[in-house]
Amino acid sequence: MKPTAAPTAVLALPAFLPRAAANAAANDAAPADELRAGLYLPRATVSPKFLYDRLGSALFTAITELPEYYPTRTEAAIFSAQAADIAAFLRPALPASYALVDLGAGDGAKAARLFPALQPAHYVAVDISEDYLQQALAALQRQFPALRMTGVGLDFAQHLRLPAGLLQGPSLVFYPGSSIGNFSPEAALRLLRQAHGLADGGGLLIGADLLKTPAVLEAAYDDELGVTAAFNLNLLRHLNACIGSDFSVRDWRHVALFNATESRIEMHLEARRALQVQWPGGGREFAAGERIHTESSHKWAPGDFEALLRDAGWRQPRRWTDGAGWFGVFAARA
To answer: In terms of residue numbers, what domain contains 220?
Structure first.
């Protein structure tokens, strides 16, 4: 599953607009400071957003194909079965020509499957991994040449704010895949309030993973093939690139567990032996078995998530679920 005022990079198709060198340098400094601060905490923590470098994003796409990882296919089945109903619910809140803002867009495939039903005039893909976003949007533009597309490289975890003038009028904020679970309930409320302002009278379409047995949850985050473990361990390589540290992947193991008290799955990296990690200007010792917390994924009771949406200012929340009640797709009007 963070800088609050980091510059954004607007990537417009068919041509990408590069960031100015000064902005790029400023944007690179804050993440490095955040990473070092998290590693110095008594219980070392790295934000899950750093899992998504170019390789991490590709690995996550692979995770969504695994039999253990039910959220993506379950959500996709709901969208497939209910797309017309969802579109009919949202249409009164949206103008004829509106923008679909896809938060954490990744490869954009989830939004693309809904284009025929939702019929946006402008697709705005927002993701922290700019390289991956560029590649994905180039492919999507070939599939949908008549649809205006804009990519925004942005860390929206602390503040969801798009470049001025990009959106004009009510918009649909789209946040699929249960990524809202990466936020604490308090942070999720803050993000949903910011999304409400961004929608400007439009709507919200969001996926949320629902509570179920720990065995099902833990298998989804610790698959037999080890793809999720590779995804988590790749974070160490990303850390080395970001702060010049000397983490060695072979010194760590992937751990996933369900924290019933907090109603969340947690991912950690656990030191296989006592070791010391260094980076320019600092470092840290880790005892054998000591962990770095890399992701939390909160799981929601349906009524609690609807209450969260109302608290954030959203009106008339509506829910669609699969037959087993494992996953929920929620829509609401601003």
So the answer is: 28-55+215-298
